Amino acid sequence: MTAPASRADVAAVIDHTLLTPEATADQVADLVAEAAELGCWSVCVSPSLLPADLPAGLHLATVVGFPSGAHAAEVKAAEAARAVAAGAEEVDMVVNLGLVKAGDFAAVAEEIAEVKRACGTALLKVIIESAALDDAEIVACCRAAEDAGADYVKTSTGFHPAGGASAHAVRLMADTVGGRLGVKASGGIRDAAAAREMLAAGATRLGLSSSRAVLEGLD
C-alpha cells in the first residue's frame, strides 16, 4: 500500500486520542480544538467523558472493555450502547485475550457480534493487542472480527506491557482482512516516520496521542 503523501492526507485518518485515566472534561475540550485545527478524522476519549461538543466534520470515538478486555460480553455491549446513546459514532472494543489464548475463537466472534449489535449504526473497531499475540492468533482474531461483522481491526490499546503497533502486525492484519475491514494502527506511534511505516504496511486509520508531533514531522 502507498502511504498518504501529504500532511492533510495523514491528518484525515487520525483518531486524535486521550485515554489517560486522569483525563478531564477541560482536557477533552482542548483535544477537540486541537483535532479540529489539525484536520483529524476524530477524537477518541473514554466513555465517562461523553458526550462531547464537536465542530462539524469531526467525529467522536470511544472505547469499551478498556484497557484489559477482561469484561463480560454483556458489560461491553451495555457500555457500547450507552456510548452510542451519548453520541459516539465509533466504538473501539478490546477483545477478550483470555479467550484468544485459549483458542476459543467462536466465543471471541460471539462477543464481538454482541457488541456490534449494541453499536447499531456506529462503526466497531476490534482491538486485538497484537503485540501480545503470535501470528496465528493475530490471523484468527482478524477472521473472528470479520465473521462477527466488525468494521475495523486495531492493533493495540497502548496500555499493554507487551507493546503497541508494529509494521509486521499491521501488514499481517491487512493481508488477512484483504480490504474488507479497515486496519487501525495504535500504540507507540509518536513520529512521522512511524506513522508512514504503519500506513505503508496497510493501516487505514491511526490512533495517536502525539498527532501534532507526527504531523509537524511531515512539513
UniProtKB/TrEMBL annotation:
Active site: residue positions: D92, K154, K184
TM region(s), chain numbering: none
Keywords tagged on the record: Cytoplasm, Lyase, Schiff base
One biological process term in Gene Ontology: 2-deoxyribose 1-phosphate catabolic process
InterPro entries: Aldolase_TIM (IPR013785), DeoC (IPR011343), DeoC/FbaB/LacD_aldolase (IPR002915), DeoC_typeI (IPR028581)
Pathway in which the depicted protein is active: Carbohydrate degradation; 2-deoxy-D-ribose 1-phosphate degradation; D-glyceraldehyde 3-phosphate and acetaldehyde from 2-deoxy-alpha-D-ribose 1-phosphate: step 2/2
Top-level taxon of origin: Bacteria
Known EC number: 4.1.2.4
Keyword ATP-binding in record: no
GO CC field: cytoplasm
One of the record's GO molecular function terms: deoxyribose-phosphate aldolase activity
SMART domains per record: DeoC
Catalyzed reaction equations: 2-deoxy-D-ribose 5-phosphate = D-glyceraldehyde 3-phosphate + acetaldehyde
Main location: cytoplasm
Localisation per UniProt entry: Cytoplasm
Role played: Catalyzes a reversible aldol reaction between acetaldehyde and D-glyceraldehyde 3-phosphate to generate 2-deoxy-D-ribose 5-phosphate.
UniProt-listed PANTHER family: DEOXYRIBOSE-PHOSPHATE ALDOLASE (PTHR10889)
Protein's name in the database: Deoxyribose-phosphate aldolase
Organism expressing this protein natively: Corynebacterium sphenisci DSM 44792
Gene field: deoC
